[in-house]
Amino acid sequence: MKTAIGIIGVGMLGASLAASLPEERYRRIGWARRKEVGAWAVKNGVLDSFCGSVEELLKESDVAVICLPVPTIIEYIQKYAPAMKEENVIVTDIGSVKGCIEKAALSAGIRFVGSHPMAGTEKSGPEAMVPGIYGNATVFTVPPFQPDHEAVDAVESMWRSVGGKIMRIDSAAHDLLVAHTSHVPHIVSSALALSVLDEPDPVIREQRFAGCASGFRDTIRVAASSPKMWRDIISHNKTAVIEALNSYEERCALMKRMIQNDDFDGFEREFGLGKTLIEEWRKEKKW
Q1: Of 169, 185, 207, which closes a domain?
Q2: Are residues 57 and 164 in the same domain?
């Protein structure tokens, strides 16, 4: 018998998950605010069926995956907790911050295991889905302090089925980790784009636009993501982001001092250390 996966929010990440789930193991159910999204997803084979309400989806699902922005994940857990408990459904999510979501889930008393796949693009909407996007991606699973082992196994099995590499972690450690590896890089990317492109002089602006090539493009790619989404993520992980920003600023200030003091031997060593660490990381990732 197939396990029913209910996807709440059929955007880029939700649609990508549905499209990646092996059909021989899972029945793919979806819900989205716009009915035309559901019709599109069923017509294109992304979903097996589309529900008219979240309550209907929860009745049909063994595992519900909330693929929505962080504040909305919290809102939906609080709003639909009675139905989640009544149907005894296992609930997970794909939110980029785990502490605040876990707190809401534990307060609501639902069967919950947080998860966060480290995959995505700067694009949004179901048409931007990428089947296979979770293949070889790290997926953090965040069981609560006293985990429901059946729920943990169900959530981790789902992510393994789409090629995810599971790494268990607690919510506080996760939020500090992703502040360093994801949240601050997005901030830095946006700040770099602004420092280069936000030039009021039209002549200089034209020159800068002309002078920015593939290296600049690659460095600022993630800054083209949704500003509203990143406001929600950063505001829900403020403390960890400030700590990670401090670490980045210290390293940046060190390199600035080396340049100011003509310490180019030190600068070369620092730059070389970065290169070595990047090569180690690429080898680990097989990229």
Answers
A1: 169
A2: yes
Domain termination residue (choose one: 119, 140, 169)? 169
Regarding whether 49 and 87 lie in a shared domain, the answer is yes
Alpha helices in 141-263 (DSSP H): 149-161, 171-178, 184-197, 202-211, 214-220, 227-235, 238-260
> Measuring CA to CA, which residue among 185, 175, 169 is closest to residue 247?
185
CB neighbours (10 Å) of residue 165?
14
Predicted local distance difference test score (pLDDT) of residue 287? 78
Name the domain count of the chain: 2
Would you state the pLDDT for residue 285?
A: 83
Q: Cα Rg for the chain, rounded, in angstroms?
A: 21
Say if residue 34 is in the same domain as residue 133: yes
Residues 181 and 134 in one domain: no
- In which domain, by residue range, is 68 found? 3-169
- Looking at residue 1, its pLDDT comes to 85
Question: How do residues 183-236 score in pLDDT, each as one tens digit?
Answer: 999 999 999 999 999 999 999 999 999 999 999 999 999 999 999 999 999 999
Q: CA 237, 243, 247, 252 torsion: positive or negative?
A: positive
Segments in the chain below pLDDT 50:
none
Q: Over the range 61-93, which residues count as b (16 or more CB within 10 Å of their CB) and which as e?
A: bbbbbbbbbbbbbbebbeebbebbeebebbbbb
Predicted pLDDT of residue 122? 67
Strand partners, 29: 6, 49
